[in-house]
Write a structure and sequence with these properties.
This protein has a two-stranded antiparallel sheet with strand order 1-2. The chain has one domain. It is built from one helix and two strands; from the N terminus they run αββ. Helices cover 56% and strands 17% of the residues.
């Protein structure tokens, strides 16, 4: 019986760790998006913002009407 309890405890710890990791990762992505938006809002029209990550690159050109507001 003790082995079953130990095994179930291990599974619960693994699931809890995985959920915590996903939650922290999601919060980090939200914070990075917020910082990128604030950075873009402070750039003058015609500026190019480049976000480089392993395996991808995102280039955003700031248009004349951008004021850091969501449209949609």
């Amino acid at each position: 019986m003790l082995e079953v309890f130990a095994g179930l405890s291990g599974v619960v710890v693994l699931l809890g760790t995985r959920l915590a990791y996903q939650w922290i990762r999601g919060r980090t992505e939200v914070e990075l998006a917020r910082v990128a938006r604030e950075t873009a809002a402070g750039l003058p029209p015609g500026s190019v913002l480049t976000d480089r990550r392993p395996g991808s690159e995102l280039r955003v050109q700031i248009g004349p009407g951008f004021r850091g507001q969501s449209h949609g």
